[in-house]
Amino acid sequence: MRIGLVLGEAANGLRRNASMVVSVVLVTFISLTFVGVAVLMQMQISQMKNVWYDKAQVAVYLCTDISPGESCAGGEATDDQIAAVKAQLESPVLAPFIDKFYFESHDEAYANFQKQFEGNPVTEYVTADQLNQTFWVNLIDPSNAAVLSESLGTMPGVETVTDQRRYLDQIFSVLNAASYTAIGIAALMLIAAVLLIATTIRLSAFSRRREIGIMRLVGASNRFIQTPFVLEGVFAALLGSLLAGGAVVGIVHFFVQGYLGGAMQFTSFVDVKDALIVVPILLVVGAVLAAFSANFAISRYLKV
Q1: Which residues are in the ABC3 transporter permease C-terminal domain (predicted)?
Q2: What pTM, to 2 d.p., does this model score?
């Protein structure tokens, strides 16, 4: 097969169908940008889970005068009950699971509440004795929170034992939903790109049907006739993939690192290195889909 001739035919096809090629580039660019964003969101969620799950604490809330439940029937947790909870946390049963823990009194809880809700009218109606005294526990393995719940949950003076990871799970569920939405939109756009590439190749082949007929008469192989059309689709898709890769890198550099990184310094975000990992994936996806759809179009509809 003469490579120069094949490449020349592919270039001619791109020039003849310039408007359709631009459409393929744009659709591929948009669809693969969504794909890249979805992949980065999954990487971000995984990274945040690694950071925040390790920081998640178990809160052992002690009874107040207004606490419900049988374990709080006696009202405010007494000093003896608080000491019993502390002794249980230091016992050989729980100590192997605990990294560290500390006690938060009414006054400390009130000070933290005032700081957290500063400017909120609710701070005017809450008093220190209404807020739970709490043991905050850091576990060696956060997945062992159930051990504390079973051991401390029914002790006198304990209102409830709460694993903070359940609040994180709600946040990550929302982020996952957004990620899956991006994946769904990307899938629809990829289908549109595949159909558009197939249509472009069909029109290109139709406009050159006399040339194809002549090539058949002189004994050109099916592979020789098909290859220029496949290259047209792959070239347009690769150009769109490169634009999508540039957009993904730009989003990470200017928005994620430049804006979010400065505004939300309490957590870590994906960086340009992560984006550069995604770029080759986009190039491969774009090239494979284009080659598949172009080859199918020329084989199925023109029966080459």
Answers
A1: 185-298
A2: 0.64
Kindly list the domain boundaries of the chain, sorted by start residue.
3-53+169-303, 55-168
Q: Tell me the pLDDT of the chain (304 aa) as tens digits.
A: 466 555 565 566 556 666 677 877 888 898 889 888 888 888 888 777 766 766 678 889 999 888 887 778 788 888 999 999 999 999 998 988 888 899 999 999 898 888 877 777 777 888 888 888 999 988 888 778 888 888 888 888 888 888 877 777 777 787 778 778 878 887 887 888 788 777 777 776 676 667 666 666 666 666 666 777 777 778 888 889 999 999 999 999 888 888 887 777 666 788 889 899 999 999 998 888 888 887 777 775 455 4
Give which of 156, 130, 140 is closest to 65, Cα–Cα. 130
Q: What is the CATH number of domain 55-168?
A: 3.30.70.3040
- What's the one-letter identity of residue 168? L
Answer yes or no: are the C-beta atoms of 294 and 230 closer than 8 Å.
yes
- Residue 37 CA to residue 43 CA, distance in Å, equals 10
Asked if 272 contacts 253 with a C-beta cutoff of 8 angstroms, the reply is: yes
